[in-house]
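In this supplementary section we document a worked example of the pipeline. Step one takes a protein sequence of length 246 as its only input; no multiple sequence alignment statistics are reported here. Step two produces a three-dimensional model, which step three serialises into structure tokens for compact storage. The input and output of this example are shown verbatim.
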Amino acid sequence: MGKMVFNFFLIMILFSCNRNTETEYNDNGDIEAIHIIKNGKRSDSSIYYYPNKNIAKILYYLKSDTIFEKDFSENSVLLSEGKNFKKKMVGKWKFYNEDGRLDKIIEYIDVCGKQYLNQGWYFSQNGDTIFDKSNFVNIKIDRGNFKIHKRYPIVFNYNKLLGNKSKVIVYFSTFVGKNFCNIEQIPVIADSSYTGKIVSNFLFTKSGKKNLRGVLLESIDSIAPGETKKQHAERMVYFDIPVTVE
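The serialised model returned by step three reads:
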């Protein structure tokens, strides 16, 4: 009964306005999907159903080819939610267990036209971060307006993925493009760190709205048991910080 009420109220919320709808049916004549149609196109939202008539997925149509998606289990438990841009996952997606508990948050970004799994936070049953499974960077920077020709500190606290013996270096600049295509042309800003914490300083020579973009490169060379040749592994985490320079 609770599931039926849950589905009923979702439908009432989404389709309360008097709009045209398009309904899809399966071979048994059951509803597979309902779409709101405006000016001949899908608009506002769509609902998809399981054969048991519970909601499987809801798509909310946002601006600029962006869709917010919510996925459910056959028992009406929310499993995941996040945005898609041109059919690619973008931003921070939340993933839940069958009991509805938040299991992890995964950040997807566009790196030179390709979808990239950038950061990940995993959580225990108590909601605490599981650091040995997670991989992310916390950046401490003055969030106010910056002055030209003045140096400012920036601190990167990086939660490693490749182990305590890996080293980390950072590249960043206001000249890095939106999708990081030219990141390899940017020189290293900070020296290697084996702790994962990097402190650097930067300054701006021109005023205006800018983006401080860059990447932390974690790497390690190791020899597997029984092997004689070193193996190299790398992990990159990108960041994009909007700033205003006066």
